[in-house]
Write a structure and sequence with these properties.
Elements: E1 2-3, E2 10-17, E3 22-28, E4 42-47, E5 52-60, E6 70-80, E7 83-91, E8 98-104, E9 112-113, E10 126-133, E11 139-145, H1 147-150, E12 154-159, E13 172-176, E14 187-189, E15 192-194, E16 198-204, E17 210-218, E18 222-230, E19 239-241, E20 252-258, E21 264-270, E22 278-283, H2 286-289
Antiparallel strand pairs: 1-5, 2-3, 3-4, 4-5, 6-7, 7-8, 8-9, 10-11, 11-12, 12-13, 14-15, 16-17, 17-18, 18-19, 20-21, 21-22
């Protein structure tokens, strides 16, 4: 067994398997995920109590035909129409960073490429795609248009085909990083302030409200998690950001799940320091996400 505090992982994503009473923990597991070295793949861990884990186990290893070879980031696992789909970020020399979708018959993998190509625009630098199914059953990808290309990072959305193999609409911008009062510029490039968007995750509350958590930076380049609220209750918004982050202690790239006891839980990595990232699970309630007082 491995203790939670001894697991290196960024961008943790928890999948509860209710019949097994086990949680599957995925995330960025390459210790060399930032540099120009060849990427390894994605691993996962298994736990019944979110403190003691088995693993790591292999979820994905690329074969020679896989076009991506660096920066394997932020895998998310979504069960959809009886299969398990991995949304993950990749890059390669001569290609922009993007999200591709992989598939497996089992939660444990092995995952193999599924989407025809990246489901984010080829001419954009993108990352952190997540799956959202609207009330009509239409799948969407929600993702970040990256600050490294446009300075002020954006959260965008596009419709996916029902088989999740391609997009079927042009992306729309939901909001920009600087729209949130709590974000701060991390640097100035070409006289532009640079604001980060990371890790969007969409959550429908028990009363039908639609929220999104996402990550950026506050003062002194401290990583934080904010929350936005869709005034229409639909993915297209308009979206309004809560004035202060819900977590501001140098951790982020969060997702939300319910424990087997029904407790709403925020999963993040913390601290946001290279090589020191660990999974952290924080109990929250829906009032934590409440943005109704925003105009």
């Amino acid at each position: 067994m491995i203790k939670r505090e001894n697991i290196y992982i960024r961008d943790p994503f928890v999948v509860p398997a209710y019949e097994e009473k086990k949680y599957y923990l995925f995330g960025t597991t390459d210790i060399n995920c930032w540099n120009n070295e060849k990427a390894t793949g994605f691993d996962y861990y298994i736990t019944s109590d979110l403190e003691n884990f088995e693993g790591p186990f292999v979820a994905f290893r690329p074969d020679k035909s896989f076009i991506w070879d660096k920066n394997f980031w932020a895998p998310e696992i979504h069960e959809y129409n009886g299969k398990f789909y991995m949304f993950a970020t990749f890059i390669a020399d001569g290609r922009n960073r993007g999200t591709q979708i992989l598939v497996s018959e089992k939660i444990t993998g092995p995952y193999i490429p599924w989407s025809i190509e990246p489901v984010t625009p080829n001419d954009w630098m993108c990352l952190d795609g997540t799956l959202f199914i609207d009330e009509a059953g239409q799948p969407w990808i929600v993702f970040c248009h990256e600050w490294v290309q446009i300075y002020d990072g954006e959260i965008c959305a596009a419709r996916l085909s029902k088989d999740l193999r391609s997009t079927i609409s042009e992306p729309i911008t939901l909001f920009r990083a600087s729209d949130a009062k709590w974000t701060r510029s991390i640097k100035i490039i070409n006289n532009h302030e640079c604001y980060v968007t990371d890790g969007p995750f969409v959550y429908r509350s028990s009363n039908g409200e639609l929220y999104m958590i996402w990550s950026s930076f506050i003062e002194n380049n401290v990583y934080a998690v904010g929350v936005a609220y869709s005034k229409s209750g639909n993915i297209v918004g308009p979206w309004v950001n809560k004035e202060i982050p819900i977590f501001s202690n140098d951790g982020g790239h969060g997702m939300i799940f319910k424990t087997f006891e029904g407790k709403l839980t925020l999963a993040i990595h913390a601290p946001n320091k290279r090589g020191k990232e660990r999974p952290l699970f924080l109990q929250i309630d829906e009032s934590t996400l409440d943005c109704e007082n925003l105009s």
